[in-house]
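subagent[fold] <- orchestrator: predict structure for attached chain, return tokens only, no commentary.
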Amino acid sequence: MTGVARPGVFPVGGRRLVVYVVWDRRGDVEEYVPYALAGLREHAARILVVVNGSLSDEGRRRLEPVSDEILVRENVGFDIWAHKAALDHVGAGISEFDEVLLTNDTWFGPVRPYGPVFERMGERTVHFWGMTDHAREVPNPFTGKGVLPYHLQSFWIAVRREMFLSEEWASYWRDLPPMKEYFDAVLTHEIRFTEHFTSRGYTALAAFPCTGYDTANPSLYNAEALLHDGCPVLKRRPFFQWPPYLDAHAVIGRWTLEAAESYGYPLEMLWRNLARNVAPKDLNTDAGMLEVLPDDDVSYDPARPLRTVVIAHIFYVEMTDEMLDRADNLPGDYDLVVTTPDAQRAEQIRALIAARPSRGATEVRVLASNDGRDQSAFLIGCRDVLLSGAYDVVVKIHSKKTPQDGYNVGRHFKEQQFDNLLDSPGYVANLLALFQKEPGLGMAYPPMIHIGYPTMGRAWWSNKPGFEELAKGLGIRVPLDDVSPLAPYGSMFIARPEALRLLVEHPWRYEEFGGVDAYRDGGLAHILERLPSYAAGELGFHTRTVSTFEYMSISHTALEFKLDEMAATIPGYAYEQIDFVRKSGFVGGGRGRDLLKMYVRRNHPGLLGGLRRFFDPSRQPGRVVARVRALPSRLRGRRT
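subagent[fold] -> orchestrator:
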């Protein structure tokens, strides 16, 4: 340790500088940030917040009470260069402190108290310490070769004065390389920082070392265990990491969230942040947000009834009683607004409603146009209802038959929608209880339809370009899911009207939806079918999917078998199989597509033209279901 000052402890009454970096795509400051900083206040002599990018007036108002200074800078170099900017800003004043904590907004906390960790690590004779660390790995998973060195994770690095007053410290930050990409920050700083200083004689420790767990990266793989052991922070990454990867490591986000809640962390702040900043389907999977609800009411509080309106678009008058029987499963009274295309249907529907016991105010509306069907009926025909502020939840249903897809497929799709929303009085009471329990729950609807339809792997169809354009125009910046969106396929759901505000406030016009020919993939109605959870997420509302016990027994067994058959041809975990298939070119073309074409050319040459159209990304698919069904059974059923 020649030339390196002997490490010391954090002295009683010592002074700690906290440098906390914030980045938000909207220039806002999420609620979990001031909550984290407020907890750090008693452990810091000075809190300097560095904002990468812009900062809104509301964001500044949130930061000012929990910080001593706010530094706003251009978003260059990620949080690493933000830390450098803070150190340059403090300059020689750093000598006033005994410890500098470099941290950022990539974690939720305090889930457990900060104090015990600061006290325990303050007693250790060390030059720098981190909250968690990462084990050495060969090969380096980021590059596929070489070594990933052991390192403290950069989201929380505390450095004592014996190190930050050294020339080695000054030269490290002076010579910090540019970081244009995320992996530049990982490869040139995070995995290098610890080894750079320990190789020069400085000592480092982790508050919760990976040697106490059975994985190389406990902050990702063992978050629940870390909380149990007293770790005050919960990394955000387990809730936006690619789900198949977490699946391979049996990371169960739902259990982690239950643990965080049991320690008193206010999950509503967490949900608001994740809903706005994580692709909804990723979040739904990582956090285990499917609720399988019982038929017996075990959770609804009748002392806190929700003001409920049912908005039902009825084209098939003969389904009126069936739909209202379903609606009558709602607990307590509810108002009913029915939309229908013409006066004749309206009179028939009014007569059917008059013959039933009343559950609340009722209105039947004749629409100016049926262009857009249930979508336009909801957003245009019932705009006043949704913006009235008179209701806590809205139940959106419509007379779904889907006759064009055949009896079996149409029947299943209809029952999948109605059963999973309005199955029985007890079931619906439990569903509405979710809205009572979670103020930030914006929507609930059935899981993705996959029986009878080839939705898996392609549920964007040709709607994504139009979706992106429309979302941008509406100010929706929630990240889009890659392969398929989280969406109410079938367009039935229960939601808070406030969660739909971005959609409802927009001045839609019937002519935008086009006529019958426009009701297809790529058209406005099908884009809007996929939009609600993203619109709700932008406002901080999260989505849950819901299912009955019976439907889950049907869906899960079918899904398990299909996955088992598909996985049989490729070894490895699901994420490895997916990676192999994508690299082979099955997604978007390439070698995989060419192999399939070769097989069809040799064995079923008459289908070659249809296969070309199937793989053509510029073609709006229309009824892709029909094209898939046209393939021989061996190609669309069991593997050959």
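orchestrator: received. Logging for downstream: The chain is about 40% helix and 15% strand. Residues 613-640 have pLDDT under 50 and may be disordered.
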